[in-house]
Amino acid sequence: MRSRFRFTVIALGILALAVPTFLLADATQVGIIRGRVLDESGAGIPGATVELVSGNQGFRRSQTTDATGNYTFAALQPGPYMVRASLSGFQSVEKTGNLVETGKTTEVDVTMRLAQAAESVTVTGEVPLVDKTDMSARTTVRAELTEKLAVTRNYQSLIASAPGVTNAAANPNVHGALSGNNQYLFDGVDTTDVTTGTFGQNFNFEAIQEVVVQTAGISAEYGRAQGAIANVITKSGTNTFSGSAKAIVTNDDWDKQNSTKNPITGASFARVKFDEDVWRYALTLGGPIWKDHAWFFGAYEWADVPTPFSTTASSASHPTGTGEEYQQRTDVKLWDAKLTFQATPSHLFTAAANSDPISGFVVQYWGTGFVAEREALTAQDQNSCGDKAGEESICTWQARWAGVFGQNLSMEALYAEQSGDIFVTPFEGNGSPIFSFEDNLYYNGATFDGYVKRPRKQANVAATLYTNLFGNTHTFKGGVDYQDLESVAFFTYPTNRIFYVTDFDPVSRNMTLTPGDLRVDFVDPAESVSTGKIWGFYALDRFEVGKHLFFNIGGRIDNQQADSDIGNTVIDTTTFSPRLTGVYDVFGNGKTLASAAYGRYYQFLVQDIADSVYAGVPQQANQDVFEWDGSQFVLVDQFRVGAGVTPVNEDLKPSYLDEINLSLQQQLGNTMAVGIRGIYRKWNDLIDDRRFVNAEGNKVTQPENFGDELRRYFKGIELTFEKRFSRNWQASMNYTLSRSEGNHFGNYTTQHFDYPTSNCTITGVGTIPCSQATENNQYGYASYDRTHIVQAFTAYTLPLSWVSITAAPSGFWQSGLPYQKQRNFTSNGETKTYLFDKRGSHRLPDYYQINFALEAVFKPWGPIEIGAKGEVFNVTNQETQISNASIRLIPDSNFGAATARGSFQTPRQYRFTALVRF
């Protein structure tokens, strides 16, 4: 007993030392099976042997129950497991199909009877859908459903299927948070863009096993996210060889034509259809390297994706040399590789890597309608993960270990490196940009020649101790997390020069110069490199009190540091985040759970604010200005951006939100669950960049935390229903009723508090103090607020003797986005907005969309499947106005009118897939 007590004390000491962690520190990729072995009276049986066997990988573990009959198997790969309990004098009991999921606990209790004629009993195991150890608002989108649905082939579309997600784009708004407030993980590795907070990497859709989206009530393991934490779990190899090959084809000519019109001009929004088959190919293969010990999985996807031909702007003065056609043709390559090694039954090693180079983008960075010829376009390679455009390398790689020490202690460790690079170069030629005053168009040169790079190194360690204290089971957990961040930007003009001239002839390639025309030479181009470091720690205790109560009490401390590109420390802040959850197991069987939770969540402000506010190395800014005097260019001015003009606010800290959420979850049978959840969120210490003119006449920007002057709230109720695949069908449905409101919806920069001593003139209003103009009618609904959202994803499989047919209808109905009457005005050379009525006082119409997929699969030879899948998006061809980004907001007779094709739903589209699986 004394040695056991000594071991417990030592383990707790190790845990206390290992408790520094931060954000996703640990973002665990394994799960737990635990339970009790009981006799017929319900008393725990000590000393029983419990054996665990993996259904996919075949490895085994065993242990004996403690004095109260408890057992715990930690650090388990996701998948099905068999649990067998045995003890002399009792029937052995075998429970099959117990499902382990990432970061969840599967409770498997075993009741043993005294031995009679039969020596063993086999029963169906547990498929948990509610988990008292994790009552977060958690949506798991599994491949077994998404492979059947008509969905966009990216993980962002899967995130949008969770309740509480609005503005369902690549970077959604979640529970009132901004689009740059989410965390994007791949197998627990943080891939969020270190500067913008948006997604930082694309991913091979075929490699996704599931996407776990947590949006509220999140435990202390996670931090630095005020929106969703989205963890993409990739597939792993098993003891059975499996693979797939798909050929996916679309053609714009098959799709329905746009029928909408510009309500102001009457011009049709019909597009020029592009009749070309666009093929995408995807391969996967996985299996054993060493049966029961080592496995591999790999996926590769490639596509050559052309777009319809576009045309540059035409000039009336040079009709033969402008209005040139060009085409974007992107080269897409997405691959993923994973090795898994169960070195011993208690130690698991994983190595994984992936990359997502997409090259061939063509962008009008001068602005649509201002680019006169192909030479003025910019080419872009995205996430090339190399040292130059077109070069391919690994974007993310990781090495992970999970181990179990005895029956009481488990640990995890991770090291990973991730990068996401974008290169911009001239699309054609490499000349200096030329702006013509004759037609206000750009010629001859691209907007950018340069790159951004956002590399990240990260490492973490976590430890978990399982023990009994005062008759109750406790799970103590803590960990250490470290991240090293960089944000690199380098932008120049081709030849570091731009001309502003009377005219330019695109045929002769000659400029027409008159006195007063300008040549601007940009001097001393250099990289802007800011750096950041993150340290943190968390500690928590998950414990039971009696048969009905369960608690998760924890907290985390995070330290964020950042240095600007001139070496100034601009961020150095430490925060504390308490997290508390209480669960009441109504009937004591783990099926009916009521919970209440409080949590504090801080934003991530390291590199964004270092780059956007405190950058001192200018990009395309330091310049010598030359003026044409009739015979030559003469130097007339020199402009240098002073480094460190913005004074550092040493008291600046990240904003935080306080969240309260209440939930009730009910598991129905073994495959269904329903739930209801209420959520309230309030933001505090919001940051804004106060702007003013100092005594020397210079404009100064000062970021500060503000109190009640800046407000943001979210209130919501969510209903959920989940049905795992059984009896040939599966489903995921949810409804959200919510409100997002306030007067501050920017990360760090809005027009609040700008130039308080200046006067501004607004059309239709007159001249008033700028402070009055910028604050008028600012409180109201966020631009991404939706009152109602209903989503449904279902699939039914009809197995016949010679073919298996799956029909998968899905769709949504949701409220339209808000908008208001407004007009832009200028204050100290900057554009501001005056709101004529309350923010969000008008709404676009409600709308819906139905999608449908039909798949037929044949099995001609053994395990080999050959099939075809057809998908229809927007079956009923709705074209409701849905975007508030391209509508007329000026208060006149055309207020609210859509001015772009993209303001409406995309008409009906088709996609077809041929597939082989085994």
Task: Give an overview in words.
The chain is mostly beta strands and 918 residues long. The protein has one domain: Maltoporin, Chain A. It is built from five helices and 61 strands. 43% of the residues are buried. The N terminus is likely disordered.
* Number of domains as seen in the coordinates: 1
Which blocks of ≥5 consecutive residues have pLDDT under 50? 1-26
Binned, the helix content reads under 10%
- Give the full name of the CATH homologous superfamily: TonB-dependent receptor, beta-barrel domain
Number of strands: 61
CATH C-level: Mainly Beta
Radius of gyration: 30 Å
Separate helix tally: 5
Strand content: over 45%
Give the CATH topology: Maltoporin, Chain A
Shape: globular
SSE-based structural type: mainly beta
Characteristics of this structure?
918 residues, single chain, 27-stranded antiparallel sheet, 61 strands, 5 helices, Maltoporin, Chain A, 6-stranded mixed sheet, mainly beta, globular, disordered N terminus
SSE blueprint:
Blueprint: H1 2-17, E1 31-38, E2 49-54, E3 60-64, E4 70-76, E5 79-86, E6 92-100, E7 105-107, E8 110-111, E9 120-124, E10 138-142, H2 143-146, H3 155-159, E11 165-166, E12 173-174, E13 183-186, E14 189-190, E15 208-214, E16 229-234, E17 242-250, E18 278-290, E19 294-306, E20 310-311, E21 325-326, E22 329-344, E23 347-355, E24 358-363, E25 378-382, E26 396-405, E27 409-418, E28 422-426, E29 434-436, E30 441-443, E31 449-453, E32 456-469, E33 472-492, E34 497-501, E35 503-505, E36 510-512, E37 518-522, E38 528-545, E39 549-563, E40 569-585, E41 592-602, H4 606-612, E42 623-628, E43 633-639, E44 656-668, E45 672-684, E46 686-693, E47 699-706, E48 712-726, E49 729-742, E50 759-762, E51 766-769, H5 770-775, E52 780-781, E53 788-799, E54 804-814, E55 818-819, E56 822-827, E57 830-835, E58 842-843, E59 847-861, E60 864-873, E61 909-917
Parallel strand pairs: 1-7, 1-8, 6-9, 13-16, 29-34
Antiparallel strand pairs: 1-4, 2-3, 2-5, 5-6, 10-15, 11-12, 13-14, 15-16, 17-18, 17-61, 18-19, 19-22, 20-21, 22-23, 22-24, 23-26, 24-25, 25-28, 26-27, 27-32, 28-31, 29-30, 31-33, 32-33, 33-38, 34-37, 35-36, 37-42, 38-39, 39-40, 40-41, 41-44, 42-43, 44-45, 45-48, 46-47, 48-49, 49-52, 49-53, 50-51, ...
